[in-house]
Write a structure and sequence with these properties.
nine-stranded parallel β-sheet, binds alpha-D-galactopyranose, binds zinc ion
Length: about 675
């Protein structure tokens, strides 16, 4: 869906102001001034749309959509299933969620319904059908927004039965389940599927495969619920694209699987800007932008962000001048086709009355936040031609939801924290420091298009993953695997015969033992004293490493770095094996960031790849590029708290200062015609 412009707008709740029509008129006036071209309606409107069971009221919403349309503003229309009306919970208590202690919620809050409940599903289907029939064909409506921030789990009897059916489908027989889950351990053998219960603080917690399957089930059931909403929309006759708003570092749902069902990925982003260095927050946010882009490998939407200060973080910190523009541009730089807000207007009461918005309770034009929104709107309009352009990556980092669940859920080798995400982000950062675009892929993704793939801590191996790695290396790719990989199968059962399973010949080693380090402990990764081995350019004498140290025994692998301390001092800490036309590297321990920076720099140099920036990128500066049909766009952003001189690539400056002197939070966007100067 390339609208031909970048979307600017956000969640709009006019249902809260129906008795004050003058407010709605002011809204439109302000929206036009701020170059708002899209708003999201209906996210939490169910009680106004269906005030009594089966009694629908759409006229108010239609009037608002008409008014917006007359003013050139498009609509993302949301299904209201993120929060339900009181009458429904009163009449059908089964729609209320049950927690792990088997206690049912009272009515209240939101995002707390049972996603299995046939009643809930039917009520949602009916309202969605009405929504499509009454308003889906409206020319202002461009996109469906399914529900809101899906998440959480329900342990009610209906969910227990659905879980058992999910297991019956997967395992067919109880013997197969017992075998898969290793239930002989502690005599936890099941006699039949009816005995299976979801994990509970007062019940089963020791079967890791049960926990893993429960997480898969919750993820699948949520996706299934979302699909039932999409099916309702399609059945009612709308073929407009669908999205749902995903969240930051959210582990409950396998977003790769969820995104398969969506036309567009979108997400909500609320960084704590100004809490630490701006560049640190920018880096953290950028990683997640890349995850969301990678889900569909095409432009996404920043569905929600805050124009001012949120009211749910520990401290409500205002965005400093220029921050909104920089943060919005960052999403565009990483592949978004729109930067949107929560919320357009602050509500008068209730939980979010102090949450930042485009329009405050005093809604004058001169309000600082509003001026920042106007500046952002102007910038997005200037950069409209970027819409639809892709971010192209030759390198990828593997992040896999199921691996994450299994790795963090297992007892040992470190129950304090395995630091999985940190290890993924370290590799990603090293590539990003060179201005390379990076895809985040999961174990099921095809690897062919990449030159270098980094796969940190792939504890659980999906069927087929080892084969894909083997082929990738055989065909000339460079693959980097780390400690604690290829340990268990899809059921969290340890592979017999050594790790990394299925790849010991590709990596030319076998990992024998793993040492867990206390938080205060460190080891070192050092250049070996023997100059005959350890020939790798660009690495320093030594780096610190922490958390986990894999002890490996090489067969054909060459040792490039060794441990510096402890009883395994002098044994391999970094190895390479030549396999087929490619190279297979194994990093044995979690090293400090500068190791990854130096190591990947060497690999990238060897591969002949270059980023979108000529030379060394100054610290605190972020560089990305998007590739359109006619032109490429290079984005350079200064996240330092001081002016920074950057080298501009040749081309037309679409936005920002022409001399490359970037003030704090300032950015420059350069357009480069394809034929003229390809990247
Ligand atoms: C989430 C929700 C919104 C709103 C914001 C507040 O992203 O989707 O409805 O509550 O948080 O930051
Ligand atoms: Zn339930």
């Amino acid at each position: 869906m390339n609208a031909g412009y970048l979307m600017h707008g956000g969640d709009y709740n006019p249902e809260q102001w129906l008795d004050m029509p003058e407010i709605l008129e002011t809204d439109i006036e302000r929206f036009l001034e701020a170059k708002i071209n899209t708003v999201t309606l209906g996210v939490f409107s169910w009680a106004k749309l269906e005030p009594q069971e089966g009694v629908y009221r759409f006229e108010w919403l239609e009037r608002i959509i008409d008014r917006l349309y007359e003013n050139g503003i498009s609509v993302i229309l949301s299904t209201p299933s993120g929060a339900r009306p009181h009458w429904m919970a009163d009449k059908y208590p089964e729609v209320l969620r049950v927690n792990g202690m088997r206690q049912r919620n009272l009515f209240g809050d939101r995002h707390n319904h049972c996603l299995t409940s046939p009643v809930y599903r039917e009520k949602v289907r009916l309202i969605d059908t009405q929504l499509v029939k009454r308003l889906g064909g409206h020319p202002a409506v461009k996109l469906w927004h399914i529900s809101n921030e899906f998440g959480g789990e329900c342990h009610c009897p209906l969910c227990q039965e659905a879980f058992r059916n999910w297991l019956r489908k997967k395992y067919k027989t109880i013997d197969a389940l017992n075998d898969g889950w290793c239930t002989t351990f502690w005599s936890h053998t099941y006699d039949n599927f009816e005995q299976v219960e979801s994990p509970s603080p007062i019940g089963e917690r020791s079967i890791m495969a049960l926990q893993l399957d429960w997480r898969r089930f919750i993820s699948d059931q949520t996706i299934d619920f979302m699909e039932s909403e999409i099916a309702a929309i399609r059945a009612a006759g709308s073929d407009k694209p669908v999205t749902t708003n995903l969240m930051y570092k959210f582990w409950d749902i396998d977003y790769f699987k969820m995104a398969e069902k969506l036309d567009i990925a979108s997400w909500d982003n609320y960084p704590t800007w100004h809490k630490c260095e701006e560049w640190e927050t920018a880096r953290d946010t950028a990683f997640w932008h890349d995850v969301i882009y990678s889900l569909k490998k095409k432009p996404f939407l920043l569905m929600e962000s805050c124009p001012g200060a949120t009211n749910w973080q520990s401290v409500s910190k205002l965005k400093k001048p220029g921050m909104l523009e920089a943060a919005s541009l960052q999403s565009i730089a990483h592949g978004a086709d729109g930067a949107m807000y929560f919320q357009m207007r602050k509500s008068r009461g209730s939980q979010e009355k102090f949450h930042g918005a485009v329009l405050d309770h005093y809604d004058g034009r001169e309000v600082r936040t509003f001026r920042e929104v106007c500046a952002t709107g102007k910038m997005l309009e200037t950069l409209g031609e970027v819409a639809g352009a892709r971010t192209q990556a030759n390198v990828a980092v593997v992040y896999d939801w199921e691996n994450h669940w299994a790795l963090e859920g297992s007892c040992g080798p470190r129950n304090e924290n395995m630091h999985y995400m940190e290890s993924v982000e370290k590799s990603w950062r090293a590539f990003r420091r060179m201005g390379l675009n990076v895809d985040i892929v999961n174990q099921k993704s095809s690897l062919e298009q990449y030159r270098i793939v980094a796969a940190p801590m792939q504890y659980l191996f999906h069927d087929g993953f080892a084969d894909r790695i083997r082929k990738f290396v055989e065909n000339g790719g460079t693959f980097v695997l780390t400690y604690w990989s290829g340990v268990v199968d899809e059921n969290d059962r340890c592979f017999l015969g050594g790790r990394p399973h299925g790849l010991m010949d590709v990596f030319g080693l076998r990992a024998e033992e793993i040492d867990g380090l206390y938080d205060w402990e460190e080891n070192r990764i050092c250049r070996p004293e023997n100059a005959g081995t350890g020939k790798i350019e660009g690495l320093k004498e030594q780096y610190r490493c922490q958390y986990l140290c894999d002890l490996v025994k090489p067969s054909t692998a060459e040792t490039l770095m060794v441990y510096g301390d402890d009883f395994y001092a002098g044994t391999p800490a970094l190895t390479v094996n030549h396999y087929g036309a490619g190279k297979a590297y194994y990093i044995c321990a979690d090293a400090e960031q500068s190791f990854y920076d130096d190591f990947y720099r060497t690999l990238v140099r060897e591969s002949g790849m270059t980023g979108a920036y000529e030379g060394e990128i100054p610290e605190g500066v972020e560089v990305t590029s998007r590739s359109g049909e006619q032109a490429d766009y290079v984005f350079i952003q200064n996240y330092n708290r001081f002016e920074t001189q950057v080298k501009l690539p040749g081309g037309e400056i679409l936005f920002g200062p022409a001399d490359g002197k970037l003030k704090p939070l300032e950015s420059v966007v350069v357009k480069r015609k394809k034929a003229q100067d390809a990247l």
